[in-house]
Amino acid sequence: MAEQISTFFTIDMIYLWLNIGVIPFWFILMFFPNSKVCGVFVSSIFPIFTLSIIYIYLVYYYFVAGYDFGQNFGLYLGLDSLGELFSERAFLIIFWTHFLTINLFCGSWIVSDSRKFSMSKILVFIPLVITYFTGPLGILIYWLIRIFYAKRISLYD
Q1: Distances (CA, A) of 124 to 18, 45, 72, 73, 140
Q2: Residue 18's pLDDT band (cuts 50, 70, 90)
């Protein structure tokens, strides 16, 4: 059975399903942030748990295939080393899963935090879209909106 799963879930198929799979979560975050579905499926541990299982599968898959995870520490040596790592398919798909998971978590946090201040979903829509594509910039824009909406600056919560 494990062989059948690995035959179907090729790295290209996992990449395709990762990209398609996060879209419904983002759609719910953007258009239905106050719904019960958002609270149960998106703002819960469910998507993070699912993406973590995929992440663990990828690490296991490449561990069995003989990928040298020690070379990943080369990303701290400079941009050239980072560029070399991105030419490795193993590093690229694991990084992409990491990126999608963190951005979805940040989007979920934005929605959760905006509920505390009863912010309009229209006001939160733009930072969510930007967070989907470039996580840190979207969080910064949300934080700036939050400062003016909450009428206070808080460096931590």
Answers
A1: 24, 21, 36, 36, 12
A2: very high
112-147 in b/e burial notation, b at 16+ Cβ within 10 A? Answer: ebbbeeebebeebeebbbbbbeebeebbebbeebbe
Integer Cα distance of 11 and 61 in angstroms: 10
3-class DSSP assignment, residue 94? helix
Q: Are 135 and 108 in contact (CB under 8 A)?
A: no
- Segment 112-121, tens digit of pLDDT: 999 888 888 8
What are the φ/ψ torsions at residue 77 (nearest 5 degrees)?
-85, -15
- The whole-model pTM stands at 0.86
State the Cα–Cα distance between residues 67 and 62, nearest whole angstrom: 5
Cβ atoms of 85 and 114 closer than 8 Å? no
Beta carbons of 10 and 65 less than 8 angstroms apart: no
Indicate the domain borders of the chain.
Answer: 2-150
Amino acid identity of residue 109, one-letter, is: W
